[in-house]
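Session log. Operator J.P. requested a structure for one protein chain; no other inputs attached. Running the standard single-chain path with token output.
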Amino acid sequence: MNEVTIEGGNPLIGNVKVSGAKNSAVKIIVAALLSNEDIVLENVPRIDNVLTDLKIIECLGAKVQWLGPNRLVINGSGLDSYEIPLDLGSKNRTASLLAAPLIFRFGKARIPLPGGCRIGPRPINRWIETWQSFGINVEEKNGVLYLESGKLEPAEIAFKINTHTGTDNAVIFSSFIPGKSTILNAAEEPEVDDLIEFLNLIGSEIVRVEGKRIEVLGKNVFKGGSFKIMSDRNEIATFATAAVLTRGNITISPVNKANLLSFVNLIDKMGCTYEFSGEEMRVWYNGGKLNPVNVTTSPAPGFMTDWQPLAVLLLTQAEGESIVHDTIYTDRFSYTKDLNSMGAEINVIKPSEVGIEAVISDDMYDVKKFGEPKTIAKIHGPTKFHGTKANIPDLRAGAVLVLAALTATGKSNLLGVENIERGYEDFFDKLKNLGGKIVT
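Structure written below.
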């Protein structure tokens, strides 16, 4: 397990260039396999999640070649296997998206049950229902999903609960099934629109008719092309948080303000200082007190659940009591124990304890069996953090612990750095360039 030592107390100052979005790159890499021609992808983050997916598609016979630090060419014409290796496929949840190009080419697929960050239940039942709606037979044996197509037909997919990767899955599948498919209650995340833009570039016909309605006219011929992955809005929010926490001054680019509105709304209510100029966002500490704010995570265009740990961390610096309610996952506050060990006062409680109705987005969560989940974090601030030794549990929580360590008095030793490297490109180097005292 990799370890990092951080000495806190230095304000982070300077410029940072954010990488391409992980949550966009991993699915566009999959969609590229629909084409027999070269696909050139720009702004691809060289992170563990992406590198694992590239290893998988190489094992399946695809051509993968780096043309530069973040420029990649993919060609799927050489695919010769429909079985995803168990050791690689079980690492990333997005490996299940590979079912689409494999069904397209072979009419069958063997997919290990998905892995990824351990942030509470992440049901795959929505994926299976979508596959079955298109005419695919699905069986599960010993941790492997066996998919085989019957007669593929277009379908109307209506998600009971809004789902990001479930929408990705439906969009990629319907892009090659002849006829018109409709996806209702579709996710509105900008990464989904990035996928749609890419698929249209290589020959698909996909339209977001209105916010949560997507219509797809399936095609069976896809061409090559060149596409630039969008900036990672999680990384943007992380460095904006770092500027406030460390009493620093950071200019972040490239930034699309439209993708950050709910996060900007939070820091605006808190009284943080920021400004936008073209594709740059500057965030700095103005010496004033920060206001407590209540936050509820929800699907786009709401406050995304990946920002939930950042919101909790920011609100430890507010004067008074704040509440963060996560309506997406039933168990994503485990990192608060480590923040409390560093001096924070965060209580994880049930919504009913503060007069809020519980919202459960996991349609497989059994309330009668498990009871009301603790999906509220009540935060009392402001907090002065002190150094600690802790294990990094997952990607987003890991970034939060690093930022807390950067503002703490004394040194912190954090184990499990590999969990951060799954999703942030050159994270520690970027922090060092801003003045962070970090030994990796």
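Operator note: The first helix runs from residue 22 to 31.
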